[in-house]
Amino acid sequence: MKISLNKILISFLFLYGFYADILIYFTNFQLLKTSFALIIVLLASIDITLNFKKYKNKRFLLIPLLIILLYLAVWQDLENLNLWYTIIFGWILTQNNKFTMKVIYFTFIIQFILVIYEVISGNLIYLSGTTGVLNTFTYDYGESIKFFSSFGFRPKGLFTGTLVATSFIIYLTMFYRNNLRLLLLIFLMAVLVNGRLAMIVSFLTLMFLIMKTYNSKYQKLPLIFKTLVIFIFTSPLIFGLISILPKTNLNFIMNTFNFEAASNAGRIYSYGESIFTFLSYNFKEKLFGLPGNEIFDIYGRIVASESGLLSMFLDIGIIGVIFYFYFFLRAWLSDNSSIINLKSKTIGFKYVVLIMFISFLQYEHINGNQRGMLFWFIILSQLTSKTIGPHLKSRLNTVIKK
Asked: pTM for this one?
């Protein structure tokens, strides 16, 4: 495999976004993220300078740079800029979609192995870490476990928390939405991670793909009969998982639609806190957001708002929310097919946009380096080259075999 500067740059983006936390824990080298960030800036500067003319869609590089300068001029603060610089990350990843998908697949395998290890051992691989390039905040994941003992054991693998691991599973589901074998593994990982939204999304996607595949092969059979056959063949999977899941994990899943459950009550509490905080902003803060805003959960801890939409209102204001809504709309309109089209064998991109938008409303699905990078990679790939669009299965099989 020919090693190019672009491939090295993409590799360091994943090292920075996906592997830095666990590497810092094991090496105790606190400046690792800073080192990776400096290498990324250096490599990106060289790569863009040498290849600027041949790159397409350079507006996705220039626009976020201008927005970053605008927000720095307004606030003189580096906080919350990940919602802008991850656009550049995503753009860099689209310059070599084939290699990026190989790295995503490799990361998927590593995460799957780590999750299995944590489930078998009953212990998390690492319990503390730092956030930010300059290590501005230190967290102890082990301390927070006691607050969530009623939710069941929740592995996280590479990531700093289960919610980030859950988002990774949802993105994997969207990438591999037309690959039945990988969807089965992704659903299994969702169950092991004990992430409710990941389980729902991966299971529905798996069922949707099975239905589309089965329907296209047996178009003359009645829909009711085909649905019954699918249910008969998938029932053992459902009941088998129910029988092996610990009771605590099962109760956590069953509480998904119980608004009196502690997990849902805590999320609703954070929603309310976020709304009241935004309403207290002055005009400039409503437009551009406010760096360093603090939301407290029911335990009195500083947390995120639990909703990507509310977080954006707080962090980057109305201007930022409009920007993201614009690209959700563009991505939606880029696919001319309907969401539920059983005559097609593949799941189209409208389904991807719908799932990501629901996840965005529900919790922090875009904020952060890992999630933001993957969000913009899949959105910009669709809006530019479309190399990971509706025909994802055949392309990914080619990538994986190589």
From this structure: 0.84
